Amino acid sequence: MNTTNALGRRKTAVARVYITAGKGNVVINDRPLEKYFKEDALRYIVGQPFAITGTVGQFDIKANLDGGGIKGQAEALRLGIARALCEVDKEAYRPALKAAGLLTRDAREVERKKPGQPGARRRFQFSKR
Known about the structure:
The chain is α+β, with helices and mostly antiparallel strands. Helix content is about 35%, strand content about 20%.
């Protein structure tokens, strides 16, 4: 099997994912998964596409993560892995991943701060007198 690549995004995080047949090694920015994502919840998020498709330990992942926070990066990586698995075998993996909602790009972004306000929607306290 050749290397298949895909892109995943979440908030301002971008994950470029390269997937090959292998033993289940996940390397992110030249570091193993356990060193990059120290929390179990984040490792669970990254492993969801494999658990849903039943391919745990069948593919090696090499990923470049950039931007955003740690949770946004984990979710961007999840989307990238799901998209890469779809490119490997559409008929087998796509229905299960789509039903689980892992192929949908979460379009929510941070709203910009407006002038004359302390935040995006927050107003300064109004004083009548």
